[in-house]
C-alpha cells in the first residue's frame, strides 16, 4: 500500500507531494470523498499546500455500509494517500500522489468526532460532493423536503445527526455557542447555482430546527456558487490493476481523470479561503454564464449521447462518440438547439468549447461508462436540458432532437438494448410509482415522470406527440432509424 514512509521511493515518473505532509494543518472538512472530489477539489487544494499549509482536508463518509467501512479502513491504512492519474485523449498520462487528505472519518462509527471537527475554529470551509440529487429538495415545490425520514429523525434528535444537513447545522450551532465564526458551505456538485441550492437546503433544515439559529447561519455563513468540470470515471477492477501496473504503485484507492479540469467560483467566503487562484481556479462575481455554458453544452450533450448509446449497445462514451450518427446528432443539437440560444461569457468561443467537449468525450483511456453518465437521468435532464427545451418551446424552434433525447431516455429506462442485452438503469430518486410509469407500455404514460416537470407549464402537445412517435420507431426499427434528419 501507499504510505508516508515510502513516498521517498516512488517509481520514476510518479510525482509525490511538493510539501512536507507532517506540516499540513486541517482547514477544510469534506463530505462525500468520491472519485470526482479526489480528482477535482483535492487536486486543486493539493496544488497550493506548498504555498499555504493551512488547508489540509478532513474527509467524511456518511454511510455505514460494508463498502463504506472498507473504504475508511483503506484510507486509514494508506495514511489517506492515493494516486491520481491524468490522461489526455492522445493517451499521454501522468501520475501523482495526492496528500492533502489528512484524515478520514466514517460518520456512523463516530458522529462526535465529525462534530468536533465542525466546531473546530481551524475548519473554515465545509465542502461537499453529495450528488446532484443529494440536497433533498422536493422536485414539485422546489423547497427542502422535511418529510424525508432521515431528516425527520435528525430533527427529533438534532445533537446526534445522521444526515449532512444535521451535521452541518449542529456544527454551526456549536460554533455560535462558542462565539466562533461560521464556516463557508461550499457545494462542489454538478448542478446549476449549487451554492444557492445548498443554501436553501441547509437553511430549510435549520429553520425547522431553530429559527434563531437559522437566522444566524443566514447572516454569517456563505454559500458560494461554483462551476466544476472534470471527467472522472469509475475505477473498475481492470482499471485499478492497469493504473497500478503503469505507475508501479500498490495503491488500493487509485483514481483517474482526464487531463482537462476547470473550476470557476464566486469569491464569497465567510472565514478566509486557500489561494486557489494559484492552482488555476477562476474567481468571478457571477458564475452563472460559465455554468450555463458547461451545463447546456457539455453536460447536456453527454446524456444526449449516452441515452441512445446505451440502447445501441455501447458500454463506453468514447465508443458512442465515434459513432458518426450519434455524434452527428449531438453536434446538430449543439449547433442548432443550444448555441443560438446561449450567451457566452466574454472571451469564450462557444464553437471552440463545442469542439473541446467532443474531443474530451473521445478519451478512450477514461473507460467512462455510458451507464454512469446516464445514471440519475431524471435529475440530470431537469438540470441540463430545461433551458434548451423551454427556449425551443417558447420560440417555436425545432424540437426534433429534444424529442429524440427524451424518447431515448424513456426507452433506456426499460433496461434492455437493441441486442437484447439487459442492464440496470440507475435512478436513485425513483420509487415504485415512478418505475411503474417508466415500465409502462403506454408510450404516453411515461411522460408523467418527474424528469419533464420543468416545462409542464408550457404547451408540450407537439413535443409529447413527437416523443411518442420516436419511441415507437425506436421500439420497432431501432435507434438509428429514429434519429432526426441531419
Automatic annotation (TrEMBL):
Keyword Cell cycle: no
Residue ranges of domain Mannitol dehydrogenase C-terminal in the record: 286-443
UniProt key word Ribonucleoprotein: no
Family annotation (SUPFAM superfamilies): 6-phosphogluconate dehydrogenase C-terminal domain-like (SSF48179), NAD(P)-binding Rossmann-fold domains (SSF51735)
A Pfam family: Mannitol_dh_C
Keyword field: Oxidoreductase
Entry coiled-coil feature ranges: none
InterPro entries: 6-PGluconate_DH-like_C_sf, 6PGD_dom2, Mannitol_DH, Mannitol_DH/Oxidoreductase, Mannitol_DH_C, Mannitol_DH_N, NAD(P)-bd_dom_sf
Domain of life: Bacteria
Mannitol dehydrogenase N-terminal domain boundaries: 27-278
Protein name, entry field: Mannitol dehydrogenase family protein
Organism ancestry: Bacteria, Pseudomonadati, Pseudomonadota, Alphaproteobacteria, Acetobacterales
Amino acid at each position: 500500500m501507499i504510505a508516508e514512509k515510502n513516498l521517498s521511493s516512488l517509481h520514476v515518473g510518479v510525482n509525490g507531494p511538493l510539501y512536507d505532509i507532517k506540516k499540513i494543518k486541517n482547514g477544510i472538512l469534506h463530505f462525500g470523498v468520491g472519485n470526482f472530489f479526489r480528482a477535482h477539489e483535492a487536486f486543486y487544494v493539493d496544488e497550493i499546500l506548498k504555498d499555504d499549509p493551512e488547508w489540509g482536508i478532513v474527509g467524511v463518509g456518511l454511510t455505514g455500509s460494508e463498502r463504506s467501512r472498507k473504504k475508511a479502513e483503506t484510507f486509514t491504512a494508506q495514511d489517506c494517500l492515493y494516486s491520481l492519474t491524468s490522461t489526455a485523449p492522445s493517451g499521454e498520462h501522468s501520475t501523482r500522489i495526492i496528500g492533502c487528505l489528512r484524515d478520514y472519518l466514517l460518520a456512523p462509527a463516530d458522529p462526535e468526532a465529525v462534530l468536533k471537527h465542525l466546531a473546530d475554529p481551524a475548519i473554515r470551509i465545509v465542502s461537499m460532493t453529495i450528488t446532484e440529487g443529494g440536497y433533498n429538495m422536493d422536485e414539485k415545490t422546489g423547497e427542502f423536503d422535511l418529510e424525508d425520514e432521515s431528516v425527520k429523525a435528525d430533527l427529533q434528535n438534532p445533537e446526534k445527526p445522521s444526515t449532512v444537513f444535521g451535521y452541518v447545522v449542529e456544527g454551526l450551532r456549536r460554533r455560535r455557542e462558542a462565539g466562533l465564526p461560521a464556516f463557508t458551505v461550499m457545494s462542489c456538485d454538478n448542478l446549476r447555482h449549487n451554492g444557492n441550492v445548498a443554501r436553501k437546503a441547509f437553511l430549510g433544515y435549520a429553520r425547522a430546527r431553530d429559527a434563531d439559529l437559522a437566522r444566524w447561519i443566514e447572516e454569517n455563513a456563505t454559500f458560494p456558487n461554483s462551476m466544476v468540470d472534470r471527467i472522472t470515471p469509475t475505477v473498475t477492477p481492470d482499471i485499478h490493476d492497469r493504473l497500478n501496473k503503469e505507475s508501479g504503485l500498490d495503491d488500493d484507492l487509485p483514481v483517474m481523470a482526464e487531463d482537462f479540469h476547470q473550476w470557476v467560483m464566486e469569491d464569497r467566503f465567510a472565514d478566509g479561503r486557500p489561494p486557489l487562484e494559484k492552482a488555476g481556479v477562476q474567481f468571478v462575481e457571477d458564475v452563472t454564464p460559465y455554468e450555463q455554458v458547461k451545463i447546456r453544452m457539455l453536460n447536456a450533450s453527454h446524456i444526449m449521447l449516452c441515452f441512445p448509446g446505451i440502447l445501441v449497445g455501447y458500454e463506453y462514451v468514447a465508443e458512442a462518440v465515434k459513432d458518426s450518427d450519434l455524434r452527428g446528432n449531438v453536434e446538430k443539437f449543439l449547433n442548432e438547439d443550444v448555441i443560438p440560444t446561449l450567451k457566452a461569457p466574454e472571451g469564450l468561443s462557444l464553437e471552440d468549447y463545442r469542439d473541446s467537449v467532443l474531443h474530451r468525450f473521445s478519451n478512450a483511456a477514461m473507460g467512462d461508462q455510458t451507464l454512469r453518465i446516464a445514471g440519475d437521468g431524471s435529475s440530470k435532464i431537469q438540470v441540463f436540458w430545461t433551458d434548451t427545451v423551454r427556449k425551443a418551446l417558447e420560440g417555436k424552434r425545432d424540437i426534433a432532437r429534444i424529442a429524440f433525447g427524451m424518447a431515448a431516455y424513456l426507452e433506456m429506462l426499460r433496461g434492455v438494448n437493441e441486442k437484447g442485452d439487459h442492464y440496470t438503469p440507475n435512478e436513485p430518486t425513483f420509487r415504485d410509482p415512478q418505475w411503474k410509469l417508466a415500465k409502462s407500455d403506454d408510450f404516453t404514460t411515461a411522460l408523467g415522470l418527474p424528469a419533464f416537470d420543468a416545462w409542464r407549464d408550457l404547451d408540450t402537445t407537439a413535443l409529447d406527440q413527437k416523443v411518442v412517435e420516436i419511441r415507437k420507431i425506436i421500439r420497432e426499427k431501432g435507434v438509428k432509424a429514429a434519429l432526426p434528419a441531419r
